[in-house]
């Protein structure tokens, strides 16, 4: 643009360029730009006025040129007449040369030749004038195009302004529509929720009315029963807490014979048959009368339990053979003598239940892991096997001894499996595992560890019932605060599998996966316990749904094999090229997805390629030159001069850092340069052959020789794919899952303007390949 301005200014001021090579030559005509873009910034104050002035100047210049051309034409005619006269004079002089002095004639001939040369110069000037006239005509035509372009520019700018305004209005309308749609959905959901709540309130109101009526009836029945009890004088002046409890129970429960007459105690209501299990059984009026008449409580005392803090009945100390078999506290034994606290049987049993269900996760190094129920004590109960627990259960008088013993056996199997796992899990990891698997049980994605369905009661070929086997343990990663995570054990056998099975479209296997719903639903179900575990335990890689937006119909094992095959195919050029195997997708997988679903070796190699790809652009990075080795590394020796003799860390191959060749043993770099420059007569021939028969790989810059195959090249060192003729990136020429892109070839490449693709012909060079194709009738 600056050239255009300078040319216009020189024309307006009548200036001529200083470098005119010929006297009288016209100044060069400035060229107008071939195209004017709408976005170009002009600095003219009044563009239209300047254009008009420019046109008038061109017309004036044109008239001047025409006048000069006429003058030159007249001068040319005069020169031609003079030339004819001179020629005649030359002819006369030639005749005189023979008779006159030769020197004088030669001088006159020289002057005539100069005159002829001047005439030739004038003719050249005339031709220049004609060329300038033609250039002025072209300049006027371009100026007209420029004026038309300026008008089109103004119209286009106005149109673009309207388009931008309409687009803004459209965007605002679309945003408003989205807001209204969101409000509609929100208010619709809120209205439905309110309707459900109203319906629920109505049902609760109806239930409350029925409950009030029932309570009124119960109150009437209780009042009648109280009157009957008072009349029978069951409650006399000698009240005890137990009698008060019984009295309250009688007031709150009015139905008679709840437990039936089968119970021996209820049949006789004899104090001799009263046990801890009968203390809170419901009695009717007649049964209460019988028990009150024969009940002697002199052998009992009331003690508060140190765990639940409730008053409990206990035998008086020193009573050798008590008549009442009522004692809610366990006696002293090797399992219960850890502290002086009083713990009722009910609290002891509840503590055992909790320990058998939860406490087995931690303290794997000890055998007696069952602890005292008192929080301030927590000493061991000295139970290291089934016999000790069975003894304690008999002391407690529990009714579920078999269930507790089976739970203990299964807990011991879980602990043994965790202890055998390497590496060991910390107590923190074990507690996190307990939290995770309890959550999975709660949301219905895992079976309870003590579910009877896992109890095998069928004998094997030896006639014995096999011991419980907890199955395989997998170490999975659970996120913690910040960016930290922790590896925890997961018992895979207890995961709930969905039915019917899901079929993989690749391997066609039917797999029973965990029921997760969509990827978004699975994320919501695992809220608070996210981590790679939630995707790693699944048989189908549904995490890809979050980005691919299509149904995942291939299993994780097939995806793993696909990633491995792609890595082997692309080699060092695999960075950012591993993709989803779905035929209609082809999305490039992220670093985290490859880490999650790739095999350990696959991800390690991919991560190495990423690092090498990043280092490849550094000046002190070198690839290993040994064939078959794909390693590369940085060579740096701090601030000291670096030794050019370097070794590959992978295969110990020796190379020269300066020349990027195998190490020139016995020669310094200077000596090697000298031999190449002077002492090796074949060096230049070698360099010429390399130049004519090889090309540098666009990926690693290594020289590559073309073989007999097609023109789709893959570098054996870095696995970069490209077109041999123009070195264009093959992933742009033939993107995955898309059609062949002819325009991706570089300008000048024969494949850019030819229907023949690089994979359809083969040969060491293009000429040979085309001849071979013609011979084959292609």
TrEMBL record:
SMART domains per UniProt: IBR (SM00647), RING (SM00184)
Keywords for the protein's UniProt record, in alphabetical order: Coiled coil, Metal-binding, Repeat, Transferase, Ubl conjugation pathway, Zinc, Zinc-finger
Native species: Parachaetomium inaequale
Known EC number: 2.3.2.31
Residue segments, region Disordered: 10-32
Pfam families in the record: IBR (PF01485), IBR_1 (PF22191)
Record domain RING-type: where: 500-749
Domain of life: Eukaryota
Catalysed reaction, written as an equation: [E2 ubiquitin-conjugating enzyme]-S-ubiquitinyl-L-cysteine + [acceptor protein]-L-lysine = [E2 ubiquitin-conjugating enzyme]-L-cysteine + [acceptor protein]-N(6)-ubiquitinyl-L-lysine
GO MF, one annotated term: zinc ion binding
Coiled coil: 156-232
SUPFAM superfamilies in the record: RING/U-box
Listed name of the protein: RBR-type E3 ubiquitin transferase
InterPro entries (UniProt xref): E3_UB_ligase_RBR (IPR031127), IBR_dom (IPR002867), TRIAD_supradom (IPR044066), Znf_RING (IPR001841), Znf_RING/FYVE/PHD (IPR013083)
Biological processes, Gene Ontology terms: protein ubiquitination
């Amino acid at each position: 643009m600056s050239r255009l301005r300078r040319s216009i200014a020189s024309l307006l001021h009548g200036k001529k360029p200083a470098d005119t090579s010929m006297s009288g030559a016209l100044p060069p005509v400035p060229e107008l730009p071939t195209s004017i873009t709408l976005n170009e910034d002009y600095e003219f104050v009044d563009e239209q006025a300047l254009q008009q002035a420019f046109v008038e100047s061109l017309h004036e210049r044109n008239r001047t040129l025409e006048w000069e051309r006429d003058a030159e034409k007249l001068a040319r005619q005069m020169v031609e007449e003079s030339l004819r006269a001179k020629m005649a004079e030359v002819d006369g002089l030639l005749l005189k040369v023979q008779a006159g002095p030769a020197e004088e004639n030669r001088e006159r001939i020289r002057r005539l030749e100069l005159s002829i040369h001047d005439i030739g110069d004038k003719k050249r000037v005339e031709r220049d004038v004609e060329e300038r006239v033609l250039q002025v005509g072209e300049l006027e035509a371009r100026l007209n195009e420029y004026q038309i372009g300026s008008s089109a520019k103004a119209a286009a700018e106005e149109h673009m302004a309207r388009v931008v305004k309409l687009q803004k209005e459209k965007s605002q309308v679309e945003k408003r529509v989205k807001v209204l749609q969101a409000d509609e959905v929100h208010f619709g959901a809120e209205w439905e929720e309110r309707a459900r709540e109203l319906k629920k309130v109505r049902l609760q109101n109806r239930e409350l009315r029925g409950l009030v009526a029932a309570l009124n009836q119960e109150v009437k029945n209780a009042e009648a029963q109280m009157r009957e009890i008072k009349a029978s004088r069951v409650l006399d002046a000698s009240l005890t807490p137990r009698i008060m409890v019984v009295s309250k129970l009688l007031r709150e429960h009015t139905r008679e014979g709840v437990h039936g007459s089968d119970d021996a105690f209820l049949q006789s209501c004899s104090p001799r048959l009263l046990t801890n299990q009968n203390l809170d059984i419901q009695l009717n009026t007649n049964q209460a009368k019988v028990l009150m008449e024969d009940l002697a409580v002199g052998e009992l005392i009331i003690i508060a339990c140190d765990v639940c803090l409730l008053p409990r009945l206990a035998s008086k100390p020193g009573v050798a053979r008590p008549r009442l078999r009522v004692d809610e506290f366990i006696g002293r034994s090797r399992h219960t003598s850890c502290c002086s606290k009083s713990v009722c049987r009910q609290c002891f049993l509840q503590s055992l239940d909790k320990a058998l269900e939860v406490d087995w996760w931690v303290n794997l190094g000890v055998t007696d892991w069952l602890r005292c129920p008192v929080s301030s004590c927590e000493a061991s109960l000295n139970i290291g096997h089934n016999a000790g627990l069975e003894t304690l259960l008999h002391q407690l008088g529990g009714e579920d001894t078999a269930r507790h013993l089976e739970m203990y056996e299964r807990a011991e199997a879980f602990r043994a499996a965790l202890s055998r796992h390497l590496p060991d899990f910390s107590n923190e990891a074990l507690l996190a595992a307990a939290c995770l698997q309890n959550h999975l049980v709660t949301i219905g994605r895992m079976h309870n560890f003590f579910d009877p369905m896992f109890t095998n009661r069928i004998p094997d070929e030896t006639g014995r019932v096999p011991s419980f086997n907890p199955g395989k343990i997998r170490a999975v990663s659970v996120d913690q605060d910040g960016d930290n995570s922790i590896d925890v054990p997961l018992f895979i056998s207890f995961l709930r599998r969905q039915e019917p099975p899901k079929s993989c479209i690749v391997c066609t296997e039917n797999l029973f996966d965990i029921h997760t719903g969509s990827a978004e639903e699975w994320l919501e179900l695992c809220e608070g316990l996210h981590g790679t575990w939630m995707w790693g335990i699944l048989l189908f890689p549904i995490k890809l749904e979050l980005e691919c937006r299509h149904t995942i119909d291939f299993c994780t094992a097939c995806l793993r094999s696909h990633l491995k095959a792609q890595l082997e195919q692309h080699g060092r050029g695999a960075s950012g090229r591993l993709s989803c195997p779905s035929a209609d997708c082809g999305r490039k997988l992220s670093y985290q997805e490859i880490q999650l679903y790739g095999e350990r070796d696959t991800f390690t190699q991919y991560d190495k390629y990423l690092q090498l790809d990043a280092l490849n652009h550094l000046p002190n990075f070198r690839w290993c030159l040994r064939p078959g080795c794909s390693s590369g590394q940085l060579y740096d020796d701090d601030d000291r001069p670096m030794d050019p003799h370097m070794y590959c860390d992978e295969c110990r191959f020796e190379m020269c850092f300066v020349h990027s060749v195998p190490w020139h043993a016995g020669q310094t770099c200077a000596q090697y340069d000298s031999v190449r420059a002077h002492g090796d007569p074949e060096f230049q021939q070698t360099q010429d052959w390399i130049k004519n028969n090889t090309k540098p790989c666009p990926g690693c810059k290594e020289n590559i020789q073309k073989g007999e195959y097609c023109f789709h090249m893959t570098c054996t060192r870095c696995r970069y794919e490209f077109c041999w003729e123009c070195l264009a990136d093959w992933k742009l020429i033939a993107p995955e899952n898309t059609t062949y892109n002819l325009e991706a070839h570089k300008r000048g490449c024969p494949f850019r303007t030819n229907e023949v693709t690089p994979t359809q012909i083969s040969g060491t060079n293009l000429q040979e390949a085309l001849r071979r194709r013609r011979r084959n009738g292609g």
